């Protein structure tokens, strides 16, 4: 969190703590415990990342999913049968495994973006801006399915004007006019 706050001046600690809490609550058993003794045995270019690798080893995971590939050299990870994977690659692996589940997850994420409401196109542009171009391209054909609002609805409704949000679009089809 410290590193992110240093890089992203637009974020507040409270925002990140809330996001972290929500992620921890959403995924059962997502927190790794008992890895602390391994931290001192891990060597990485950035010593502040040693806890990540120690937790990965302790959890017997196969990979570290990170944008920070340079600080997790393949030669060091290979000693522990680990690899570092960029989030764009990881999501694309998930698309190959279960495309419908990823599309459903993308729609659920898009539905939670309410300030302002976002269309499927807006969501895909956000993915692109987050250095997830392959993910955005793979989900492009599902733009209408991902969109929780009718993209043809009034622009002012997307901004949350008094008439309320645009029409909610069911996952399996478009809403009737």
Which characteristics define this entry?
177 residues, mainly alpha, two-stranded parallel ribbon, 2 strands, globular
Estimated helix fraction: 40-55%
Q: How many H/I helices?
A: 10
Query: Kindly, what is the distance between the CA atoms of the first and last residues, rounded to a whole number of angstroms?
Result: 45 Å
Report the portion of residues in β strands: under 5%
User: What is the total tally of β strands?
Assistant: 2
Largest sheet, if any?
2 strands, parallel
As for the number of domains, it is 2
* Low-pLDDT windows of residues: 156-177
The general outline is globular
Strand order, largest beta sheet: 1-2
The secondary-structure element order is HHHEHEHHHHHH
* Overall pLDDT metric: 85
Compute the CA-based radius of gyration: 19 Å
Structural classification: mainly alpha
Give a written overview of the molecule.
The protein is mainly alpha-helical. Helix 4 links the parallel strand 1 (63-65) and strand 2 (83-85). The protein has two domains: 2-86, no CATH class; 91-158, no CATH class. It has helices at 2-7, 13-26, 50-58, 74-78, 87-97, 99-112, 120-129, 133-139, 143-146, 155-158; strands spanning 63-65, 83-85. It is built from ten helices and two strands. The model is unreliable at 156-177 (pLDDT under 50). A two-stranded parallel sheet has the order 1-2.
């Amino acid at each position: 969190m410290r590193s992110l706050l240093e890089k992203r001046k637009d974020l507040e600690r409270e925002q990140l703590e809330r996001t972290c809490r929500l992620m921890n609550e959403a995924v059962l058993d997502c927190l790794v415990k008992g890895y602390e003794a391994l931290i001192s045995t891990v060597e990485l270019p950035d010593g502040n990342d040693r806890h990540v690798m120690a937790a990965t080893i302790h959890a017997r995971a196969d990979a570290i999913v990170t944008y920070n590939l340079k600080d997790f050299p393949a030669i060091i990870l290979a000693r522990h049968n680990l690899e570092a994977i960029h989030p764009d690659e990881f999501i694309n692996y998930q698309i190959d495994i279960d495309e419908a589940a990823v599309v459903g997850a993308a729609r659920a994420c898009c539905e939670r973006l309410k300030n302002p409401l976002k269309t499927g196109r807006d969501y895909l542009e956000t993915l692109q801006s987050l250095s997830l171009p392959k993910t955005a391209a793979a989900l492009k054909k599902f733009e209408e399915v991902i969109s929780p609002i009718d993209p043809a609805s009034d622009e002012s409704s997307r901004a949350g004007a008094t008439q309320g949000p645009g029409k909610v679009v069911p996952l399996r089809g478009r809403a009737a006019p």
